[in-house]
Amino acid sequence: MARILIVDDETDLRGMFKMLFEDLIIMDVFMPEKEGIETILELTSEFPDVNVIAISGGGKVGTRDCLDSALEFGAKRVFTKPVTADRLLRAVEQILKNGKAVPK
Length: 104
Description:
The protein is α/β, with parallel strands linked by helices. It has helices at 11-22, 36-46, 63-72, 85-98; strands at residues 24-28, 51-56, 77-80. Helices cover 45% and strands 14% of the residues. Strands 1-2-3 form a three-stranded parallel beta sheet, with helices on both faces.
């Protein structure tokens, strides 16, 4: 697992960086142990400000149906697989820029 070390002497700036890198989740909708829709619902219920991007390559139900459900349950953006790195990075940038206010 990759780690990011934030080194800065400004507390507010460290807090902003921490928030930006902790509060984004990229979640596959279909997984073997627990469905992504269920997990999205749990996460957004417990952490209303969390930013979720849902992705899916399909499954038992249609891909569009499950991604529409992901949006209903709190995902900020959805993508079908395969998603290009460029599209995903643009979505991450947009969500982090507009998703939450900088902590005080």
